[in-house]
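Schema walkthrough. Field components (list of strings):
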Amino acid sequence: MKHLTYLKTIRKFCVECMGGSPKYVADCPSYKCLLYSYRNGKRPKSEKAKYSPLKSIRKYCIECVGTSNEVRNCSMPECPVYYYRFGKNPKLAGKRMKSKSIPLKLF
Ligand code: SF4
Ligand code: SF4
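Field assembly_structure (string):
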């Protein structure tokens, strides 16, 4: 199954939040919302975002259901940000460890 990028999932989430209106997303007044900086599906150019997009999703999800355990057990797979709710990109799972492994030096 093909998944949207995390920035696009935030965008989709925000459009749904605003009843399907991209215009309302642009004018969203909830600047304290954890997804606010990425609501247009892009990294902000002018403002400095407090958290990365993935961390913002994670924090939003914890706020949504209360605890990290509840995020794990979230029963809304249709939610646009569900795939990234752990604050990590599942596609990269295990890849970082491999790239960081230090080759053995043979003397
Ligand atoms: S930034 Fe928050 S309040 Fe605003 S549209 Fe997105 S999810 Fe809704
Ligand atoms: S994935 Fe689940 S916990 Fe996260 S915002 Fe959606 S419904 Fe809430």
